[in-house]
Amino acid sequence: MNxxxxxxxxxxxxxxVTFSLHLxxxxxxxxxxxxxxxxxxxxNLDAVVNYRRDLYDNEVASCFYPERSALLHAxxxxxxxxxxxxxxxxxxxxxxxxxxxxxxxxxxxxxxxxLQGAQPIELPFWKAPLRPRPTIDFLVELNDALHRSxxxxxxxxxxxxxxxxxxxxxxxxxxxxAVLLAEVLRGLGLATRLASGYLCEFGDGDKIAEGSLHAWTxxxxxxxxxxxxxxxxxxxxxxxxxxxxxxxxxxxxSPVLGNYYSNRHIPSTMSATLQIVPQIPHAHS
Length: 285
Description:
The protein has helices spanning about 105-110, 135-150, 165-170, 175-185, and strands at about 1-20, 20-25, 35-45, 50-55, 60-65, 70-80, 100, 135, 150, 170, 190-200, 215-220, 225-230, 235, 240-245, 255, 260, 270-280. It is of the alpha+beta class. The model has no long low-confidence stretch (mean pLDDT about 95).
């Protein structure tokens, strides 16, 4: 399928302010099933923009704003050619077929940061299996339990809720779902990272991510690699999930990261729009 993504964000302040360095993580990561046909990023005319790769190999637009301004805007347009991808199109290594399993020493050396600091989390609506279970079956059940037991509510700004708060509230945004699932999996000894990007939702059904970027979780399963799980929708990630950033924390995957400087609070407003539109490929003569 061919898809056009159009993202616009605007931050308006009551008076001119000075901006910190801003990082934009909006660019779909290189994948075998995703081809970038055209891409354009824009921000304030005076900005000095550098493109780089961060610790997690995400492409980042690093923007320095030399002049004070009452407005900061950013826009990103990209046309993509996307091949279908089966969310379960992988083979699990023999030592990881059943949960619980133990990562091999070579895997642990690389995956250690994605396991550190995790504490077991008790979910009132789901319990870890007491006997060995097929790993993928166990992950599907956990993902589905989160989807069925916690209500989605849109929240465009603010940090992710701590897992205990989300469980108590029983409702949260996609980043809250993603953080909770990551912490549950880490507490069970599975290496996990967070992901953000775009969710292509076509048709007339309910659209969880309409008008905003989406967040989900990726767990490392030997043989399968990083497997995307979307607890907000209760699905595993296929070609409809287009990853722009991965990382350990919510800040690592934030689509926009930066602030303004002032010796007092300056009232401001933020608006953002996102359109993901299927395109009809041009016929070749």
